[in-house]
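Quick start: what a row looks like.
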Amino acid sequence: MHALKQYHVSYRINGQDASLDMQEFEEPSLDQVRLRLMQEHQAEPQVTTDAPWEDPVCDSEYSRIAELGISDIRVTPKQA
């Protein structure tokens, strides 16, 4: 049987240190963490997927994270 593991996410938002604790079965990918941080910090979460016909300079997920001022994301297992 799988057990939930604790992960500590540290990051910066607008230059200020911040953190978030997550419970996952496996270490979350950076993309999963970015989506979770967008959920935490956006007042009204919106669709962040680019349309197939668009040719963006960078993916919407990355530009939204930059707009929110989130940077330096690090995920570490939380010690029990």
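That is the whole record. The mean pLDDT is 84. The radius of gyration is 14 Å.
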